[in-house]
Amino acid sequence: DRRRATGPGREDQDVIITDVSARVFKHTTRRHSDTAGHAHPGPAHEVQQGILTIRTEDGHEGHSFAPPEVMRPHVLDKFVRKVLIGQDHRDRERLWQELAHWQRGSAAQLTDRTLAVVDCALWDLAGRTVGQPVYKLIGGYRDKVLAYGSTMCGDEIEGGLATPDDYGRFAEKLVARGYKGIKLHTWMPPVSWAPDVKMDLRACAAVREAVGPDIRLMIDAFHWYTRTDALALGRGLEKLGFDWIEEPMDEQSMSSYKWMADQLDIPVLGPESAAGKHWQRAEWVKAGACDILRTGVNDVGGITPALKTMHMAEAFGMNCEVHGNTAMNLQVVAATKNCRWYERGLLHPFLEYDDGLDYLKSLSDPMDAEGYVHVPDRPGLGEDIDFDHIENNRVA
Fold it and tell me: pTM of the full predicted structure?
């Protein structure tokens, strides 16, 4: 009996995981991905989404969303179910460690994204079982947090984000909506003429002129600039009073970030996309490759390792900004002190973020007119899931 051999010595049946399942469904969106994976607005079309559900013997369920590719059937069968079935769902740390241990021998099939969706479903299950939001289970720090508006990447759409003036006009709208901070994602391939440091700086200057000195500004630019281009971008941003520069070079080269951070006064934020979970982020702190640390639930493999990153940064007196929106990241922000912002986006003049998603009955990150996102008081991750929509649009 695995639950007695490896569990906490309890015989309570209601905590034992009996099923792990994935459902794939269609939903409608106006977001389109270009050939480099960047989101842009376009006509409404159907895409597929997945929901992972973990169920206990007494019928409690926890849920988390991810693309279907993250929860492929053979990955769930070979790794996830073998680790979870028959186990106490409350042992999240042990279950995460066991899954992470299996990654080495998985031929790269068991990804950090898969670890993340499983870990989030376990946290959601814990919260729903006791009727509490996840951030309260962790130990809540706040129930609202300032959001910065995070733009989509630049494009070549007339009236969209095609020119520096477009960015300036859109920034004015974001400030009117209540945002106290704005992060620019500037132009990247396949935009025909990108990348271009001078154009990036022109967009940043247009936004600064449009919003004035009191709105906090950041940039997430082309991710593969050379050292000299990244340094030129950083020095231009210093003159414009930007709060940070994010991922202007390939993050596999930590030495390049150390080189840049040593020469700039503007804070360097990272790493975001670098593999290695919280261990790699510890190496960045040790090397002095960043001034503000970066984590994200999907980036490091779940809420569990994201919290490890947050607390490690706190021990060094550093802020740690959380990458991306969604309920799972909001729960981490609400449970920690050393994160200043919630990233709300991606935003574009031709899309309305507050319209939400058709498989959620309400927003997971509602924002008031003063720019604060309020953490929902719903149990678990706080997602108001429309299960009827999911069932009515099942494809697998």
Answer: 0.96
Integer Cα distance of 269 and 247 in angstroms: 7
Instruction: Pick the closest to residue 320 from 349, 348, 278, 358 (CA basis).
Output: 278
User: SS3 for 105-139, per residue?
Assistant: CCCCCCCHHHHHHHHHHHHHHHHHHHCCEHHHHHC
C-alpha 370, offset from chain centre: 23
The pLDDT assigned to 8 comes to: 47
Angle formed by the axes of helices 277-287 and 254-263, nearest 10°: 40
288-308, pLDDT tens digit by residue?
999 999 999 999 999 999 999
What mean pLDDT, rounded, does the chain reach? 96
Number of helices followed by number of strands (H, E) in the chain: 15, 12
Peptide bond into 195 cis (omega under 30): yes
> Looking at residue 14, what is its pLDDT?
80
Could you tell me which of 71, 115, 105, 63 has the C-alpha nearest to residue 327? 63
